[in-house]
Amino acid sequence: MLLKYIKLKNFRQYRGEQMVEFSCDPHKNVTVFLGENTSGKTTLVQSFKWVLYGSVTFPSDILLNIELLKEMNPGNSEQVEVEISLEHDKTEYCISRTQNYICESKGDANPSFSTIKIIRKMGDGQTKIITDKKDIESTINKILPKDLSNYFFFDGERIESISRDRDITDAVKGLLGLSTLENAIDHLKPSRKDTVYGKFRESLVKGDEEAEKINKELEQKQDELDEIEILIFNVDDNLKHYNARKEVLEGKLRDNQEVSKAQKEREINEQSKIRDEERLQDRNKMFIRNFNTYTISGFARPLIEKAQKLLKSAEVDNKGIPHMDASSIDFILKKGQCVCGRRIRHGDEAYNNLLEQRRYLPPQSIGIAIQQFTNDMEQCKSSVEKHEENIQSHYKDILELRSNIREYEDNIYDLSEIIRGKVDTVKIEEELLEIKNKIKNEEQRKENLNIEKAECSTLIKLYEKEIGEHLLASEKNKKIRLYMEYTEELYEWFKNKYDVQGEDIRRELEKSVNEIFNKMYHGQRKILIDNRYRIDLYTEFQGENIKTDESKGLETVKNFAFICGLVDLARKKVNKRTNGDIEDVIRTEPYPLIMDAPFSNADEKHVKSISRVLPDIAEQVIMVVMEKDWRYAEEIIGSKVGMEYILNKKSETLTDITKGD
Prior knowledge:
The protein is an alpha+beta fold. The chain contains 17 helices and 16 strands. The strands form three sheets. Strands 1, 2, 4, 5, 6, 7 and 8 form a seven-stranded antiparallel sheet that branches. Strands 9-13-14-3-15-16 form a six-stranded mixed sheet, sandwiched between helices. A three-stranded antiparallel sheet has the order 10-11-12.
C-alpha cells in the first residue's frame, strides 16, 4: 500500500480544504510534519483511521471545526470530509468519507451518519465506484484490516499498549497471508456440519434410516470433539501464560536470593521476639506476685535471726504447756473438774498442782511465749528461703529474656536495612506457589480432556465406518464417499502446509523483529513471539530464557521493532519470487508507517537508533513529530525526507498546513 495524498475539509483544527501529498520516492520515502503540542498532530493521524473505518479516539464526538461551528446560524449546514488516495495491489483507490452537520441553535449542530465512497481505478484505466456497504468493508479489510490499523497508524505516546493489546492473531495472519490457508482449512474441516465434508455427509444419509441415526450420533460426537479441542486450546494458552509468569517469578527470586534469605531470617526473629515478649510478661507477673507476698518476711529475716540468737542464749524457764494460758487454769479451778473428768477440790493435790502450773503460763510466764515465737519465726524463715529462690530464678529469666529481645530487635533492624527498597520475595514466593498449583491443575485438566478427545475420536471413526458400510451400496454414494475421501486428503494437506508455513512465518517474523531490535538496542536481550504473536523481552540466564522487566524506553524500542518486523516481513513477501508452491497463496502487500509522536518515550540514543532503521524497513514513512524530537532524528533520517510540512498553530481551534523549505 502506497499513500499518495490526503485531503482534509473542516476536520477539527483544519478549517476549509487543506491537501498534502506524500513522498512516493523509494529513495526519499519519508514525509515529515513538524508541530508543537495541540497543533493537530494527533488529529492528522486520526484522520486516516476515520476515513477508512469511521472511528476516532477524540474526547468529543464533534469533528466539525469549532470556529466554523460557532459561526453557523440555525438552519445552516456544513460538511466534514477526508479523502485519501492510495495504491494497493497495483490498483489505485480514492476513498472519501463525509459527515454533514446541521445547526439547530447557535453554537450547536447535530451530525448525520458518515458516508463513505470508494473509487477504484484498474490498471487498464477503467474506474468503478463502490457504494455497497459490504463491498466497502470487504475492500478496506483487504487493503488494511481494522484490527491491524493501530500498528500502522499509531500514537507513539501510547505505543506501550501494543504489547498488551488483545489477541491480534487473526489480524496478523491476514497481514502475513495465512488467512487464506486458514479459511481453506475451515471450509474443508470434516468435524463440522457446515463445511464441504459435512454437506457431502448430509447427502449420503438420505434414504437410509439406520445411517441417518448413526449420523446424528456422529454429529453429536463431532460437536463434542470441537468443544474439547477449544477447551484444550484454552488450557494450552493458560499453561503458556502461567509458565511464562512462573519463569519471571523464578528469575526474580534468583536475582533476590539475599533478600529472600533476609526476609525469612527477619520473620524467624520477629516470631522469636513475640514469643519471648509473652514469656517476659509471664515472668514479670510471677516475680511481682512472689515479691508482693513474701517481701515483708524477707526484709524481716535478719531481725528474726538476731532474735533467735538472742533468745537461744537467754535463760528462761520453759515449763509451761504450749498454747495454754493462766485463764485456762482459772476456768478448770472454778469449774471444779479437770478436762479428764476428775473432780478437783480446793486444797487437794490436783488443785495445788494446777496452781503451780499456772505460774508458768502467760501472762505470768514468758517462757512459753518465747517458745511459741521461736517456732513461728523458724517456719517464717523456712518459707522465705524457699520463695527467695523463686524470686531470684524469675529475675534471672527476666534479665535473659530482655537481653534476647534486644538482640532480636537489633537483628530485625539489620535485616530490614538489607530488605529496604528491594523486591518483596515473600509475595513473589506466594504467587509462585499459586502459579505452580494452577499449572498442576491445568495439566491435569488437559490430561483428562485428551482422554475424552481420544474416546470421542475413536467413536467418530467407528460411526463413520458404520455409515460407510450402510451407504456404499449405491453408486451415487460411492461417488460421494470418494469425494469425501478427496476432501479429507485436501484438508490434511492444507493443515500440514498451514502448520509448517505458520511456524515458518512466526520464526521468520521473530528473526526479523530481533534483527531490527538489535539495531536499536545494544544489549543481551532478545524478543520471543508466541503462536498468538504476543511479544515479550527475555534475557539468557544459565542457558534459560528468563522474562525480564522493561523500562519505558526499552518497551518503546521493543514495540517499534515488532511493528517494523511486520512491515518488513510483508514487504519481503511481496518482493520474493515464488515457485508455484503454497507461497503463491500467501503473498501479501507492503505497508507504510503513519506515526504520531513516535519518539516521545525514547531518549536521544534510541531516537537515533529508531531513525536509522525506519526508512529501510517501511516502503513509506509518514511521521508527525515535535521540533525537540526531530532535531535528534534529523541527523540520521534527514537525507531520506522527500516531503516536509509545518503545522502552523493559529489558535487552539485552527491550524494551517504549509510546505517546508
